[in-house]
Amino acid sequence: PFLEEIDMQVIQGKDFCLKEPCAVSIGKFDGLHKGHKMIVDDLRRYKAFGLKSVVFSFLPSPEVFFGRQDSKFVLTEAEKQEILASWGVDLYVLYPFDEETATMEADTFLKKVLIGQLNMKRLVAGRDLSFGYKEDLIIKDFSLTIKENSKICLFGESGCGKTTLLRLILGLEK
Questions:
Q1: Which candidate among 38, 54, 57, 108 keeps its CA 20 to 30 Å from the CA of 117?
Q2: Would you place residue 152 in the very low, low, confident or very high pLDDT band (cuts 50, 70, 90)?
Q3: Which residue from 43, 50, 4, 39 is spatially nearest to 23, judged by alpha carbons?
Q4: Could you tell me which residues are beta bridge partners of residue 9?
Q5: Is 55 exposed, middle or buried (0-12, 13-18, 19+ CB in 10 A)?
Q6: Mind giving me the DSSP string for 16-33?
């Protein structure tokens, strides 16, 4: 079958500001498998509500920055971009993970980068969501499925990441 050429914008760096509202998924997206495809499919469903689909990744990854992993990955950036474009992603952001990013508080990152610069309205997360500050993981390997119209309770010690988790799930709508 004939594959139509798909345009996907790629932004590398910190100097950007989008006016169009977005649905965003954050991750390494290395090895792009069925789980990643499901996340991208969820992102694309928000197009019906006028949201651009955005895959947000750090370069280098936090694991490489902190020396916990070498810089070898399953896919090259070019291969990753080709696959994401073929899946219909509108925008791929490669955000520098440097000392400034590593020491930015989660709330500041969400407000300044995801909401302020990307105009994020929805955050789409897959299984095993992890989120950290400096070298500390605040949320590690989190997965949750909530049935429609269900009520849930989230509790834990002060500072364990409850608010950060809720902000991640809800996308901090303005």
A1: 38
A2: low
A3: 43
A4: 91
A5: buried
A6: ----S-EEEEES---S--
What are 119-151's pLDDT values in tens digits? 998 888 765 555 555 556 555 555 555 554 566
As a whole number of angstroms, the distance between CA 119 and CA 131 comes to 20
Q: How far apart are CA 119 and CA 18, in angstroms?
A: 6
- Cα 95 from Cα 15, distance rounded (Å): 9
Return the number of other C-beta atoms located less than 10 Å from residue 140's C-beta.
Answer: 12
> E strands within the chain?
9-12, 22-26, 52-59, 91-96, 120-123, 129-133, 136-142
Rounded CA separation 36/174 (Å): 27
Please identify which residue in the block is written with the tokens 């290395």: 30
Residue found by looking up tokens 């969820």 in the block = 42
Which tokens go with 98?
Answer: 């440097």
User: Does residue 160 have a pLDDT over 80?
Assistant: no
User: What pLDDT, on the 0 to 100 scale, is given for residue 3?
Assistant: 42
- β-pairing, 9-12 with 91-96? parallel
Contact 120, 172 (CB under 8 A): yes
Question: Rounded to a whole number, what is the distance in angstroms from the first to the last CA of the chain?
Answer: 43
